[in-house]
Amino acid sequence: MDFSVIFQLRTKRFWWMDVIFYFVVSLLVATVICYFIFLIKNNIQKSEIEKEIKALETVGTSLQKDHEKQVINYQKKINDFSSLFKNHGFASQVFSFMQKETRPNVWFDRFGLQQKEATVELSGQSDDNEALSRQVAVLERSEYVKNINVLNSTLDESSKVKFNSALSLDSKIFKYISDLQPALEEANLPPDQSTDATEGQETVNTQTKSSDKLMIVFKFPQIADSVSVVDLENNTVALDVPFGTDVTNLTPSIVISPKATVSPESGLHQDFTNPIVYRVTSEDGSTQDYAVAVRVLAQVVEKKSGSPIVIISTVILSILLIGAVIIGAFFIYKKRLNNKPQI
Quick one: pLDDT at residue 125? Predict the structure, then answer.
């Protein structure tokens, strides 16, 4: 067998192999360069974001920042309490239901509640199997129970029946107390508290009237990009509106202290070509004026071209690819010249 053919195939190099080799090398180099370019771009964007955050921290007075922190804390507490209330509501409904439906001679010593699945795992004991059967029958007849399974039951040393069970509850369980309330009120009506007061007795309101007269929010709902800054120290309000906004007919929405009034009223059309003075009157009659000034922002020319980093990366990648093709063609041409038989 002649192995010379195989040896020639092993040593022979084709021109397209050189093209693929230089093309892959150029792609590798371009990938590394683009990686570093985008890494630099990422760091630049991070620094710009940090600058914007610092700039936002300088907006507003110290009193406004304190109010903002209080609102954020209150919002967090509300979210925490809302989840607690939901869990507490489900537990209250289930415990009220079990308290009413539990039969004599049956005791429960462990509850496992799963709100999302609306299931309850119960452990307890009964005097005998007959008492347990009656309890299971009562729960099965209830409209609030979809399914009940007695997982196991055993006799202890005192001849009591210990059992484990699982209840699958209907969604109606979430309004069990509200459904039960009319029956409870009919069975035990609360006394009329209005009859406790002595006839002819006058109620004296000792609560002092509020003196708060703050302007909390001043905005234009019809302008989504309007930005307002309320300076409670200097009693001024500055608003920036986008370029092209008609300030001669704007309708402000104003939020002030509770029990206070504002003039001109919120929701009235106003011409904000020049600053307008709004007067806030507190409950006790004291007043505070706020000068509202509206500024139209300059026109922003959007750049239609792409990001400079992306453009540079594309140019470099194109140059590398073209260079790889040229170098590959040069080496192929040179190799053919060397392999050309000499005359």
Answer: 87
Based on the domain organization, do 47 and 132 belong to the same domain? no
Do 179 and 241 fall into the same domain?
no
169-225: pLDDT as tens digits: 887 777 777 776 665 555 554 444 443 444 444 444 446 888 888 888 888 888 876
Edge-to-edge strand ranges of the sheet holding 287-296: 227-231, 236-241, 287-296, 276-281, 261-263
Rounded distance between C-alpha atoms, residue 330 and residue 38, angstroms = 32
Q: Does 130 reside within a domain?
A: yes
Digit-coded pLDDT (tens) for 243-287: 888 899 899 989 888 889 999 998 899 999 999 999 999 999 999
Question: Structure tokens of 307?
Answer: 């990001």
Half-sphere exposure of 90 (CA within 13 A, CB side): 18
Tell me if 318 is assigned to some domain.
Answer: no
Residue at 66 is within a domain: no
Q: Does the pLDDT of residue 288 top 80, yes or no?
A: yes
Domain CATH number, residue 164:
3.30.70.2830
Buried/exposed code over 153-176 (b: 16+ C-beta within 10 A; e: otherwise): eeeeeeebbebbbebebeebbbeb
Q: Which domain holds residue 40?
A: 14-58
Domain assignment present for 110: yes
The end-to-end CA distance of the chain, in Å, is 34
Spatial separation of the C-alpha atoms in residues 245 and 294, rounded to whole Å: 10
- Cα distances from 75 to residues 69, 80, 81, 83, 273, in angstroms, run 10, 9, 10, 13, 37
